[in-house]
Design brief:
The protein is an all-alpha fold. 82% of the residues lie in helices and 0% in strands. It has 2 domains: 1-37; 40-74. The protein is rod-shaped. It is found in: Cell membrane; Membrane.
Length: 74
Amino acid sequence: MSTGIWIAIVVVAALIGAVAGFFIARRYMETYLKNNPPINEEMLRTMMLQMGQKPSQKKLHQMMTSMQNQAKKG
């Protein structure tokens, strides 16, 4: 009887830990993405203008595609 109670306690504790871990990780990712948004075309255009380049829509699209492909690889 005692062994069954300990097994139940361990299972319940594991479930509580998994649920708590999920919500903590979710909150962390929301905060991270809020503080560090992913790069979009407008940000890329601004960076190119600051470097003295005149960005065309074709060049921006190529760079965004290239960055997305790199993100998938890594």
